[in-house]
Write a structure and sequence with these properties.
The complex is a heterodimer of chains A (348) and B (75).
Chain A: E1 6-10, H1 15-25, E2 30-37, H2 45-49, H3 61-69, E3 73-77, H4 79-87, H5 100-118, E4 122-124, H6 140-148, E5 154-155, H7 167-170, H8 188-197, H9 215-227, H10 236-241, E6 246-251, E7 254-258, H11 262-269, E8 276-280, E9 288-292, H12 296-308, E10 318-323, E11 329-334
Parallel strand pairs in A: 1-2, 1-4, 2-3, 4-5
Antiparallel strand pairs in A: 6-7, 7-9, 8-9, 8-10, 10-11
Chain B: E1 3-8, H1 15-25, E2 32-37, H2 42-53, E3 56-63, E4 66-72
Parallel strand pairs in B: 1-2
Antiparallel strand pairs in B: 2-4, 3-4
The chains are: A alpha/beta (348), B alpha+beta (75).
Chain lengths: 348, 75
């Protein structure tokens, strides 16, 4: 009796990785999923923070995929290790701060380590040649295989027929004839395949899964690094706070983050011991965090901005509470900024 | 059988799931784990994680912006 072969599938929560895993499961291979949490994943965090999304509870798509496929899923925290990928990408960035090729190499390398530790036989991904302009091109496929150290243990079931046979194919662990030859940006073959398997509620493919591909988020990240004199180190709270609120930088020495809705405000409450916070005392208004080292004059400016985003924006004077990190609080009176008084270049 | 408590307050998904997963690795079959969270997403995510990994959710509850899940570790 032949040995039961085992594959670990990189599961993003999207359709391609789901179909890749399903393709190999259909061949009788035992497949378990692995999902890496870098801190920049779109799903989960922002959905959890924003109150407006509570009417429709959000699922974790990688868990949903695993449950649909009936396979185990291992979610791995790579926040710390990922910093080097983001800060020093050998292959550079994409359109924004997305180091997609280095990211793919990193994740496949992590999967290779997992494979060795858990006595699995090969790795599968949902990559399709031509699907992504940076990381999924014919020229980059061998780079990922080679630089990750996975070499020919890395099988891409959705486009395998367009690539040289890998070890699982040559050894007959999987039947190459039953793999696919997808290429390009069209989603039609995947959608048809999903329909064939009866998958009809998968995550929509148009949305990116990483904040680093987002122009606005990337601008905030670059601003954070600049404000720290080029020091690119970060922690999870830095990453989280770039996802919430309206970010306004009136000066190099400080920035303010204005909650945009109730859920963000509640989330930001958790940072009251790490930041100076402001809120309107005489009117309803958002919570504001001050990041950096503001002077008294800067805090007066921050208070006027805070008042601008409260219900007293048209009042002659608004009471604004300023709370220090130790909880001590004082109230100052300010005239709210008019909409056109806040320079556009302050908005990050 | 032991019962342990995991404080996952202020963590947003998937971190509560990851912390739960890591804690469960240290427990034995039949042990119970009480996970206390503030992200409402755990009410879907942790039960889903339990289902696919063979653990049993014994109880869920919520109140005052906290969400509690008690699970039993599977074999």
């Amino acid at each position: 009796m032949s040995k039961q072969r085992k594959a670990v599938a990189l599961i993003s929560g999207g359709l391609d990785s789901m179909l890749a895993a399903k393709t190999i499961m259909e061949q009788g291979v035992h497949v378990e999923g692995i999902n890496f949490f870098t801190g920049f994943c779109v799903e989960g965090h922002t959905h959890a923070i924003k109150a407006q999304n509570k009417a429709k509870p959000k699922r974790n798509n990688s868990l949903w995929v695993a449950e649909q496929l009936g396979m185990k899923l291992h979610i791995v925290d790579v926040i710390d290790e990922y910093k080097d990928v983001l800060i020093n990408p050998k292959h550079g960035y994409g359109a924004h701060m997305n180091p997609c090729l280095d990211c793919k190499i990193f994740m496949v390398n992590k999967a290779k380590q997992w494979l060795v530790e858990n006595d699995f036989d090969f790795i599968i991904t949902g990559e399709v040649i031509g699907q992504r302009p940076m990381s999924q091109r014919k020229a980059t496929m061998p780079i990922v295989s080679r630089e990750s150290g996975a070499d020919d243990l890395l099988l891409r079931p959705l486009c395998a027929k367009n690539l040289p046979a890998t070890l699982p194919e040559r050894e007959g662990w999987v039947d190459r004839d039953k793999l696919h030859d997808f290429s390009g940006r069209s989603r039609k073959p995947q959608m048809a395949m999903a329909e064939g398997f009866g998958f009809d509620d998968y995550a929509q493919p148009a949305g990116g899964c990483c904040f680093l591909t987002d122009a606005s988020y990337s601008a905030k990240l670059v601003d954070l690094w600049k404000a720290r004199d080029g020091d690119k180190q970060y922690d999870l709270d830095d990453v989280m706070l770039l996802k919430v609120g309206r970010h306004i930088r009136p000066g190099q020495n400080y920035k303010i983050i204005v909650a945009r809705e109730e859920g963000e405000g509640r989330f930001m409450q958790g940072y009251k011991k790490e930041f100076i916070t402001l809120h309107c005392a005489s009117h309803a208004g958002p919570l504001v965090l001050v990041d950096g080292s503001p002077s008294a004059e800067d805090l007066f400016m921050a208070a006027r901005i805070t008042a601008r985003y409260g219900q007293g924006r048209d009042a002659e004077q608004v009471d604004v509470s300023i709370a220090d990190k130790d909880g001590s609080e004082r109230i100052i009176q300010v005239k709210p900024f008019a909409a056109d008084e806040i320079p556009q270049q302050w908005f990050i | 059988m032991s019962r342990e408590i995991l404080n996952a307050r202020r963590l947003l998904c998937p971190l509560p799931v990851i912390r739960t997963q890591d804690k469960v690795k240290q427990l034995k079959a039949g042990d119970q784990l009480e996970v206390i969270c503030t992200d409402p997403g755990v009410m879907q995510d942790i039960p889903a994680w339990c289902r696919i990994n063979g653990h049993k959710v014994l109880e869920t509850s919520s109140g005052d912006h906290e969400y509690i899940i008690i699970l039993e570790v599977g074999a």
